Amino acid sequence: MPVGSGDVGKGFGEENKKKKRKLKLPKKGLEVTLPLTITVDGLAKLLDVPNDHLLRKMQRLGMDKLASNFILSNEEAADIALEYDVVPIIPENKGPELYPQPIPEDMSAHPIRPPVVTIMGHVDHGKTTLLDTLRCSSITASEAGGITQHIGAFSVELKGGQNITFLDTPGHAAFSAMRARGANATDIVVLVVAADDGVMPQTKEAIQHALDADAPIIVAINKCDKPGVDPSAIHEELLKHGIQTEELGGDIQAVEISALKGTGVESLAESIVTLAEVLDLRAETDILAHATVIESQLEKGRGNVASVLVKRGVLKTGDVVVAGTTWCKVRSMTDDRGKAVSSAGPACAVRIMGWKDIPRAGDMVLQAESEQKAKDVVGNRTEKRSNKARLAALEAMNEDRRELNNRSEGSREAELAFRKAAIAYKKGLRKKYPTRGEFMLSSEPDEDAKSEDASKEDAVAVVPVVPVVIKGDVSGTVEAVSSALKQLPSKKIKISVIGVGVGPVTESDVMMASTGAQGVVIAFNVKADKKTLSIAKREGVDVMGFRIIYKLLEEVEKMLVSRLPPVLVEAIQGEAVVQQTFDITMRGNSTTAVAGCRTTTGSISRADKVRVLRSGTEVFVGAISALKNNKHDIAEATKGQEFGMSFDGFEDAREGDIIQSLRYSEIKPTLE
What we know:
By secondary structure, the protein is of the alpha+beta class. The strands form 7 sheets. Strands 24, 25, 26, 27, 28, 29, 30, 31 and 32 form a 9-stranded antiparallel β-sheet that branches. It has a 6-stranded mixed β-sheet with strand order 6-7-5-8-9-10, with helices on both faces. Strand 14 (320-323) and strand 15 form a beta hairpin. The relative contact order is 0.07.
């Protein structure tokens, strides 16, 4: 055997082994712990498989994130891992949590509680006046414009000693979410319908909220004292919307009242008490407190305050409670009349002070055994919310990466096309050596592509954006205002809500609004001090204060319209026909093209712009540089008059062209 032949054979054998080596796959049953998110490349490394193999698996699963840099959620990664017969482990972030106690099957052993009644209906149909009459106080006087601005919870003791807790919900269209919360927190819905107005948009919405919440309904037909009204028509109108009253053979009570004069209000209260007895409303008093946030706000001298409706258990001063991602050690409690109380049982509404942050309206309030437990629960919920936000952002991140990958793919294809063209040139199959610009490489787009992109950017940039910061007295109102502003037409100008909060307008709110052009701070039922207003003036930020929701919407619409350019309306003042064209010699031996014309309709004014039409096609729009008749300058050529004219920047007028004299007027723009 020749020297080294054995080594050569050995090397050849090893090379064959390399060619025949099978794909290494992860061991079956291997446990793999997956993070919240992971890239495709990261998962391939974790499973120790080639990227292309993993991508083929994903394709078979019908996934569209087929690129190494795409991000997968842990659930998507688990589906892929199962294809390799490994065991994906997703760490459960259970953490400390609070849950309401299960409701006992037999409630007969527990005490009867007062009913929670929500008064709902259209704006200005008399809901708050009705509650005012029931309480024998003056709530309406404290509400801006006589319209309830946020949910109020009040307890009323009737002459017979029975207690009823009322929720008064706003009727304006902007407060839909707040009405829905009121319906969901209630036992009985009193639907107020004005006899002189009938079923209106928010009446229909209130009916739907009550039906969705499966809450019994009592209809209060208000303003029956007005002359000429026909309450029976209201029964028929309600029937069209699924509300069949007892008068029409249904099972829904309807009471005719006058909230202003008090007529029929006692009958309405009796109807509520009777229905509550039938419902047999009971609640435990020997368990940890469970409540719902009705409204929340930042009060001067009191800090973060929340009105809550206790549903089960008894809430006491000194208790520790959690709502959403904030907690509170109850420092003090007051009832709806401002009187300090030490405890609140089921169906009682109280205002709680001592919150670390302002809770959101609608949040569930649960009592914790200790401050440490409350802190742990809030920390766990905050982490979960953060993880949820990260997962929600995945699609946007992947879309950006998809676009980047498409551009890279386009560059590779263009480079390949360029190389093929270069080879064709060398073989004599192409006359001219290619340039990369011919193949529109993404790194060097041609001029047409640049202009097209620029035009698209201009089209997008045409719609101006107004940055808005919203501050209000309670969280529910802020939420409603934000939602209402987002419903405004946005084709011509958009509102971008960049910040919301509860409490007075601060310097930081102004500075946040100043980050965009002509920013606005909307203050609803809150104020800004002189220093803050001074800073707003310096920064060019408009601080708009309001107390009534419909006034807010009207003024914001006016503000948006004022920022739109005026709409120019074109009117044709007259027409002329070009009969002849000729050149005249000016000073310095220069020549100017002149169109000899005759006015056919209206007049041609020297001050107006003109349009030149040739065979119906526009060839020029611009100013007149000279208008003459018999070598004399004239201001206007009337019907039938012949004249000569030259144009500013246009010398190609031809016989038979039509000249139109144009005048523009400005009209006020609209948001639509």
